[in-house]
Please model this.
Amino acid sequence: VATQVQHDPAYRIRRLLEDLLTEFREPVEVSPSPR
Model:
């Protein structure tokens, strides 16, 4: 069952989106914009 979930396109897209969000959120938290 786990393998089927991993192969699900929606699951892969969700993982990619989560990775992108973490990458964008990390730098913002570390160095907030001057404005």
